[in-house]
Each structure stands twice: as C-alpha cells, then as structure tokens.
Amino acid sequence: MGLSKTSISVLCFVLLYTFGVADVQWLRYHTSTNPRDELNTQGNQYYRQFENFRPEGVRCPEFKSDKPLFIKWNTTMDERGFRWIAMDRSAISGLYDLLYIDSNGNGHLDDEKPYQGRIGDQYRKTFDPIAVYFKGEDGPVTYHLACEFYSDDPQRSYLCISAGSYYEGTILIDGESVPCVLFDFNGNGTFDDKPGSYDTDRILLGSESNRQNMFLGRYLEYKDKLYRINVARDGAFVEIMPAPDVAYGVVNVPANLTEFSASGINGLYTRAPKDGQLRLPEGTYRIYGWKIERNEKGQKWSLSGSDVPGDYAITVSSQSAVTVDVGEPVFSQLSVSEQKGIYSINQEFRGKLGERISIMKGSNRPPSPKVAIRSKSGEYDRTFSLEYG
Fold it and tell me: CATH no. for residue 332?
C-alpha cells in the first residue's frame, strides 16, 4: 500500500506531536502590587530581617538616614544568586520609605533611583511593583517584585518580598483553548521551579471564576489526561504535549478515605480512591493531604489531614503497589506551658504521620473543646472553652 505526500506529512506531524514536539505558546506579562489577591491564589511572602552590616564593595548613594538598612533578595536569575536592596528615610525620623535595588545586576546601588513607599498604616510602607532586569537566553528579561516594609519596634524591621508579576494568556490543550496563568509562587524571579514541595511554582487553568490552581510539575493533568509540560524560565511561554507513554503505579490507602493528595516532581495529584486504591504516575511523592467524609444523623462531617512532615515520602512504581497508612484513628494532644504565672493551654489533633488534623461539621468547625480546672480543695472550679487559633 502506498502513501501520498500529504498522508506522509500528516503522519509525521502526528508522530512528532505525540512523542515530544509541541508549539511554543506565548503569554502576556502583567505587574501587580498583590498578584495573590488579583489571581485569588496563594503565594509565599518572605518576611526577611535586615543585615546587621553595610555590605563591603557595594557603592551606595548618599543616604539621608545615618543608619540605612540592607537586605539580599535571593534569585537564581543572577549569577551571584542575589541582588542587594537598601532602605532609606525621606525624613530624619519615621518609617523607612525609600527603597533602592540593584536592578541592573552590576552589584552597586549608586546608579539606582529610589522607589517611594506609600502609607499602609503606622507600621507599614508598601511599594509599587519594583522592576529588576536579568540576562535571558534571548536578551534582557524584566521581572517585578512586590515589597512591603514593616516595623513595629525601632530595633526590629522586616521587608516582605514576594512576586509582583505573572504571565497570562490562552493556550491550546489537545485543541481546546484554555485560559492560563503562570505564577512565581516563591518570588525568586523564575517561573519554572518544580522542586516537588510547597514552594513549587503554580499554573492556573480555566476561567477566572473556575480556575484550577495546580503545582507546576513534570506533567500536567487536565480533564483526566496527562501531558508533558515545559515552562520557560522567565515565564514567557509554555509547551504542552501528550504523554501517552507514562507508567503508573498503584497506591493502597484505607478504604474509608474519600480523598488523597500527593505532590512531587511530577506535580500535585488529588484522587478519589476506589476500594482503597488509586493510581499515580511513577515517581517519588510527599503526602499533601487526605480526607474522610461521612454523614452522621443527617449531618455531613469531614476529617482531613495536612502538613505531613517533609521527611516522609513514598515511591510509586509500576512494579509493585505501595501502601500508605493514614486516616483514623487520630490523636489528641494537650500541652500546658507557664510563664510568669500565666498558663497557656493548647489542644490539637495529630495524625499517624504527625500531620495536622482538621474536623469540620458541614462548612463550619464544631464547638471548640472545653477544659475544666479544679483546685485540690475545690475552692476553684471553672470550665473554659479553648479557642481555635
């Protein structure tokens, strides 16, 4: 049987797309003083204390304050691994409200103009998105930081540093046009971090009212299909291609679990186990969370675990199933501490792996536990409600 030139061209395109070639899909760059609120997503804010010294070899402008503050912003986009930031005052007293940053990466601050902080409250100064410039593979790259200065004590000051930008656009996934946002979750200047931990960057898919907030990983799961994904380091584009050759392994969990989540270099996966089993792409994962839901006397209750200690990991393989023992029972822990005659009493639940436990009745927490305190003589006998948080 012979093939025409047209048939051969179509066949070659299908094979290339299936086994590793995809179009570069470009996104638009946006800046914001608070992308987390704008995108309705989470993101790390790093409250960093200032250095207790003036950096050597760094040329500085003529500061108005006799005690300027210095701090490093860590970024892998700079070959040194950081950029210097300095804080100054526009007045003799009051909050530090002038911010200098080594925007061009030459290691100095004397060629920079200060950003003027805006009043947040008596303890804070917020700044408009702060631009820095990097050397990218195809030329200069611009990135913006969101910064907030905070001080509630003359001897204690912090700079809150987070991402002040994101990329947004529409991409094609298996022929479907899907709104897409890339967010630098850890605020380090790159958009392709896939460490398999809570610090991994995020990809948001779907309309603004119905976005899926996903960990960026080696794969992307969309509408029950798995795709390989590549994100530009500076966030300018994504590449997505089918991943039909990925091997899966089985994870055994308690039969009463209604939800199980695991994260790793492959991404974050949330499953509804069936008969105590679920499938994940081969790889190493941390347990991200689990949930048990049941109805008691017409009321929906849920028991969920999160924040599993980071040293606990599972390896999923197609060769053999792995078993994870989470869920019931959970354990109540009571701690009492005393300082200068004031007692603090704390009660919390922990899971089998040391994870935090949350109990919900419908969409609300049930009433907080009570503690009864009675003296030996019985003269003092009172009952208190422990408060959440």
Answer: 2.60.40
Question: Which of 290, 279, 318, 304 lies closest to 361, judged by CA?
Answer: 304
Residues of the chain with pLDDT under 70: 1-22, 43-45, 196-198, 388-389
11 located within any domain? no
Q: Judge whether 364 lies within some domain.
A: yes
Mark which of 217, 245, 273 sits at the end of a domain: 245
Q: What is the pLDDT of residues 178-219, one digit of tens each?
A: 999 999 998 999 999 987 655 789 999 999 888 899 999 999
Q: Which two tokens stand for residue 159?
A: 């700079």
- CA distance linking residue 359 with residue 377, whole number of Å: 36
Structural domain of 164: 19-245
Whether 6 is covered by a domain: the verdict is no
Query: What's the whole-model pTM score?
Result: 0.82
Q: Do residues 238 and 295 share a domain? A: no
Structural domain total, the chain: 2
Residue 171 lies in a domain: yes
For residue 11, the model assigns a pLDDT of 38
